[in-house]
Specification:
Keywords: Transferase
Protein name: Sulfotransferase
Oligomer: single chain
EC number: 2.8.2.-
Structural class: alpha/beta
GO molecular function, one term: sulfotransferase activity
Largest sheet: 4 strands, parallel
Organism: Lotus japonicus (Lotus corniculatus var. japonicus)
Bound molecules: adenosine-3'-5'-diphosphate
Length: 323
């Protein structure tokens, strides 16, 4: 039995052996839980999150498939929402805290630290509350999906760069004793959909469809579009969250200041992001690698590209979404 399996509640211990499983990237097995592939030690926190979390109408949820630009979107959203609290970028919390610290993940930071059904104390969280998650749309807490007017911002990334970023990350944060995950093996898992919170196409399509059905509820963004014109999307985020930038703010450069504060170059060089840690095993520096579009050309062979193109074409056909 792995360390992860030992720490589970009885409820999950009973459930897990009944679930289909496949070899995992960082854990021995991923389990097919509620239609997505999940690390066994995340099943309990996600269960508890679903049962307990009470969303407020003012809440903002930043949702992504891993390595799609979560850190960037968290920083941008935090900066947009809190721009009146921190008008000067000189003493801004983003200069001394990693975005994952300011915008905690439900399934790790908040419910991941709880023992089974313990209730986390969220009373001290400053409003407007912003949370992060990798949980697919159908598995979000009901209070987020249906019982509140809280807003969701989803960021996706092209599946080529997304894969390379994920593969590089996993090999950087793995225990020294663990074997290196070979590119070919990881790629097969990506294509089969057996990755954390995957298949990636279901993850993306779940939020995409919801953004079409309820555009006031879910704002769907692409990493590549942000790279292309981040000023435009910062403005868009402000509008979507009901806190649009005024003409005065625009003309005095507030949007540019936010863009600059959250830029890859700026964030990567901050002391907290060079030396701080996210968890015991993961340094903040691992969230900042290259931050580019198209780096996949340096890693994927022509046959890999062909295979992934086919999968993308097949899975996203008719959705109105392309990469
Ligand atoms: P690369 O590995 O391609 O460089 P996540 O935040 O979801 O873990 O995704 C990490 C990816 O986003 C990494 O991509 C990382 O370099 C990139 N990234 C992190 N901060 C960024 C920023 N401020 N601007 C643009 N990209 C950023």
């Amino acid at each position: 039995q792995s360390r992860e399996e030992e720490s589970l509640s009885r409820e999950c211990k009973e459930l897990i052996p009944t679930l289909p499983r496949e070899k995992g990237w960082t854990v021995r097995y991923l389990y097919l839980f509620q239609g997505f592939w999940c690390n066994p030690h995340r099943i309990q926190p996600i269960y508890t999150f679903q049962k307990q979390f009470q969303a407020k109408d003012s809440d903002v949820i930043v949702a992504t498939y891993p390595k799609s630009g979560t850190t960037w979107l968290k920083a941008l959203t935090f900066a947009v929402v809190n721009r009146h609290n921190f008008p000067s970028s000189e003493n801004h919390p983003l200069l001394t805290s990693n975005p994952h610290h300011l915008v905690p993940f439900f399934e790790t930071s908040i419910y991941g630290e709880m023992i089974h059904d313990q209730i986390p104390d969220l009373s001290n969280v400053i409003e407007r509350r912003i949370f992060g998650t990798h949980v697919p749309f159908p598995s979000l807490a009901k209070s987020i999906k249906d019982n509140s007017k809280c807003k969701i911002i989803y960021l996706c990334r092209n599946p080529f760069d997304n894969f390379v970023s994920l593969w590089m990350f996993v090999n950087k944060v793995k225990l020294e004793s663990a074997p290196t995950l070979m590119l070919e093996e990881a790629f097969e898992m990506h294509c089969n959909g057996t990755t954390r919170y995957g298949p990636f196409w279901n993850h993306i399509l779940g939020y995409w469809k919801e953004s079409i059905a309820r555009p006031e509820k879910v704002l769907f963004l692409k990493y590549e579009d942000l790279k292309d014109d981040v000023n435009f999307y910062v403005k868009r985020v402000g509008e979507f969250l009901g806190c649009p930038f005024t003409h005065e703010e625009e003309s005095s450069g507030v949007i540019e200041d936010i863009v600059q504060l959250c830029s890859f170059e700026k964030m990567k060089e901050l002391e907290v992001n060079k030396c701080g840690t996210f968890t015991r095993d993961v340094g903040n520096k691992h969230f900042f690698r290259k931050g580019e579009v198209g780096d996949w050309v340096n890693y994927l062979s022509p046959s890999m590209v062909e295979k992934l193109c086919k999968i993308i074409e097949e899975k996203f056909r008719g959705s109105g979404l392309s990469f």
